[in-house]
Design goal:
Layout (H helix, E strand, L loop, with lengths): L5 E4 L2 E4 L1 E4 L4 H13 L3 E5 L5 H13 L2 E5 L2 E5 L12 E4 L4 H14 L3 E4 L10 H9 L3 E4 L8 E4 L12 E4 L4 H10 L8 E6 L5 H13 L5 E3 L3 E4 L10 E3 L4 H13 L9 E4 L12 H7 L3 E5 L2 E5 L9 E3 L7 H7 L7 E4 L11 H11 L4 E3 L3 E4 L10 E3 L5 H8 L10 E4 L11 H8 E3 L4 E5 L6 H12 L2 E4 L3 H11 L9 H9 L3 E4 L2 E4 L2 E2 L7 H10 L3 H13 L6 E5 L2 H5 L5 E6 L2 H14 L6 H17 L12 E4 L5 H14 L7
Helix pairs in contact: 1-2, 1-3, 1-6, 3-5, 5-6, 7-9, 9-11, 13-21, 14-16, 15-17, 19-20
Length: 670
């Protein structure tokens, strides 16, 4: 997951391949609560690992549920409808997870305990009054701790004998379907007699109620319903574990890759996007996004648990759609509309205004930043397409809303070839922590940006480059360690640095499974940072560096580090030989005296004795050798920016490079 302040998406020109989606948030949190309320142990397969599910799991642990991870599964031993807490006030923090706050409010109101439910500030702006009104109708005791009608809440215990369950319980259906879902999940706890729920007004997001009813049946509760207005929970209902249950991949998350297949041309001779984990027969309502994508021109095939999507009509066809049945996935259509042949209108989406943010306003604001003309009202949004010349590079505010971030990543496929900056990209952790990594696994850029930081020994280029890479969310290449790792691989393979073994060593070098992360050099998952810094490793590095085939193999290996979203590479010839077309080149220098002092402190901290004079002499001699060697001598690229950090802190050096990077980007300062 990218935890950076922003993530720059370079212009993307195509996509093809296979993606595996995480589990559905809607199904995951329903299944977790049902397993907690049921008798017996439930083994859950393919559960979504995200902020929302972690919030729910933390709450269930606090309630006394047995929770045991086992590989890719999770076992939950349920409460059997009986609270096991001591009776003391139990505070529960539920973040911005509506799929936890609403159902837990209802369930805890009937379990008989004393609770305080709170969340992030945005959760305290999301209405819950209609659910609380429905619960207080039947005798539950709930107080508002802040603004009436909104969390945080204090829930007091009640006796089931004091509940008024004979008359129908009325709940509004036109604000959020989660209110009805919460009642359907909780009321079987108290079903001594038939319990009737009546929906007041038009029920929105009906497919989400279908998910709830489907899962209730899996846990032994068969709800009778009269259309979408009246639901009856049978007397004597009780939850029982189904034993094993599998969570479908998230159909809302599938919408981004269905849209990607509809928008993107192929790459490397391949076309289309294959999506694994969900098929057209999914129980999730958002799978009907397929129908809208087809209306816009996408070609979609489906099988058991998979979808394949290809670009069909181009430009996409404009649509006018009542999107009430796919409220979350419909946001993706608003970005697809930028690629259409006319204005597209999404109607009946008033529920967007009470989600993680006011999504109608959010989408309108950010689409306009890209250059689009947008009209918005209380329950609709109309998006006009953009001509190639009309696209603008934009910094997209995400409002701590995962779906805003994921939707606008699709704007990077614009025909104008302008980049897109996503602010606070880590918000995708709510439902799809690895979204951007998954996107990059199938997408291809016109050009992956590279920052080169070259300089002499002990100039601090490795520390600087690694931190710049971390702050930008870019890959990092420590080129100075490559010959050392190659020497290590040679020694482990029982080879020697001579002409007889040159081809074998070159083959090892070409396929080194290397990763540089958190200051460590990882070889096939093993931390070899210390092993390659020994004197013996240095000698091996010197020997293999004389082999032409090895140098050629490592050149190709270094260039393969150039992957989305970008690369920061440090060394002595990154900007002159390896990446001569790099977007930004920095030549880092410091006086020999300053570098000797830094190296001296480093060695002393490791218990290695050395003198400043000898270190300075060694550095000056090495500088002379590196500058005069015949192959790739140490020198700044003609277009490099010079940074003398003799008197600069590492923080100031980092800020300087980031400022230079900002200057070559088309975005306003983030």
């Amino acid at each position: 997951m990218f935890s950076t302040a922003f993530l720059d998406l370079p212009p993307l020109v195509g996509a093809a391949g296979t993606v595996r989606l995480p589990g559905s948030k809607s199904i995951s949190n329903r299944v977790l609560l049902l397993a907690a309320l049921a008798s017996g142990t439930t083994t859950i397969h393919d559960l979504l690992d995200s902020d929302d599910t972690r919030v729910m799991l933390d709450a269930l642990r606090a309630l006394g549920c047995g929770i045991q991870p086992s590989g890719s599964t999770l076992q939950i031993t349920g409460l059997g409808g009986q609270l096991k807490s001591s009776g003391a006030l139990l505070p529960l923090f539920l973040g911005n997870a509506g799929t936890a706050m609403r159902p837990l409010t209802a369930a805890l109101s009937l379990l008989g305990g004393d609770f305080e439910l709170s969340g992030v500030p945005r959760m305290h702006e999301r209405p819950i009054g209609d659910l609380v009104d429905a619960l207080t109708q039947l005798g539950c005791n709930i107080d508002y701790l802040g603004n009436p009608g909104y969390p945080p809440l204090r829930i007091h215990p009640v006796d089931h004998d004091d509940l008024a369950l004979d008359a129908p319980i009325r709940v509004r259906g036109d604000v959020s379907s989660q209110f009805l879902t919460a009642l359907l999940l909780a009321l079987p706890i108290a079903a001594r007699n038939d319990i009737v729920i009546e929906v007041v007004g038009e029920l929105i997001s009906k497919p989400y109620i279908e998910i709830t009813l489907n899962l209730l049946a899996r846990f032994g509760i068969t709800v009778r319903r009269d259309g979408w207005e009246r639901f009856t929970i049978p007397a004597g209902s009780s939850y029982s574990s189904p034993g094993d249950i599998h969570v479908e991949a998230d159909a809302s998350s599938a919408s981004y890759f269905i849209a990607l297949g509809a928008i993107a041309t192929g790459v490397s001779g391949k076309t289309g996007i294959r999506i694994e984990g969900v098929g057209a027969d999914s129980i999730q309502g958002d799978i009907r996004f397929i129908d809208a994508a087809r209306q816009m021109g996408a070609e979609v095939d489906s099988g058991p648990n998979w979808l394949e999507v290809r670009r069909g009509a181009w430009p996409l066809k404009a649509i006018d759609l009542d999107a009430n049945h796919i409220p979350d996935a419909a946001m993706t259509l608003a970005v697809m509309a930028l690629y259409a042949d006319g204005p597209s209108t999404l109607r009946n989406i008033a529920s967007w205004r009470v989600k993680e943010t006011d999504r109608i306003d959010a989408m309108a604001n950010e689409l306009q930043k890209l250059g689009a003309t947008v009209e918005a009202g209380p329950d609709f949004i109309r998006v006009h397409p953009l001509a190639q010349a009309g696209w603008q590079a934009a910094s997209i505010r995400t409002y701590d809303d995962h779906r805003v971030a994921m939707c606008f990543s699709l704007a990077a496929f614009n025909p104008a070839g302008v980049p897109v900056r996503i602010l606070e990209p880590h918000c995708v952790a709510k439902t799809f922590p690895d979204y951007f990594e998954t996107l990059f696994s199938v997408a291809e850029a016109a050009e992956v940006p590279v920052i080169c930081i070259d300089g002499p020994t002990a100039s601090g280029k490795g520390t600087l480059a690694a931190e710049v890479a971390r702050l930008l969310g870019y890959h990092y290449l420590d080129s100075g360690s490559l010959y050392r790792v190659t020497g290590l691989a040679m020694r482990r393979a029982g080879l020697s640095a001579d002409a007889q073994h040159e081809a074998q060593i070159a083959a090892l070098a070409a396929a080194l499974p290397l990763q540089f992360t958190e200051g460590k050099v990882m070889l096939d998952g093993e931390d070899v940072s210390d092993e390659i810094r020994t004197e013996a490793a240095g000698m091996d590095a010197s020997r293999v560096s004389t082999l032409p085939a090895v140098r050629e193999a490592l050149l190709a290996l270094q260039q393969r580090f150039r992957q989305l979203p970008g690369l920061v590479a440090d060394g002595r010839d990154m900007g002159t030989v390896i990446f001569p077309d790099a977007t930004l080149k920095v030549f880092l220098t410091a006086s020999a005296a300053q570098r000797a002092e830094r190296r001296h402190k480093q060695l002393i901290s490791k218990g290695i004795s050395a003198t400043l004079d000898s270190l300075r002499s060694d550095l000056e001699a090495r500088d002379a050798r590196d500058s005069s060697r015949s192959v790739a001598p140490l020198k700044p690229a003609q277009d490099a920016r010079h940074l003398d950090n003799s008197q600069l802190s590492i923080e100031k050096s980092i800020d300087t490079v980031l400022d230079w990077w900002q200057q070559v980007q088309p975005f306003k300062s983030a």
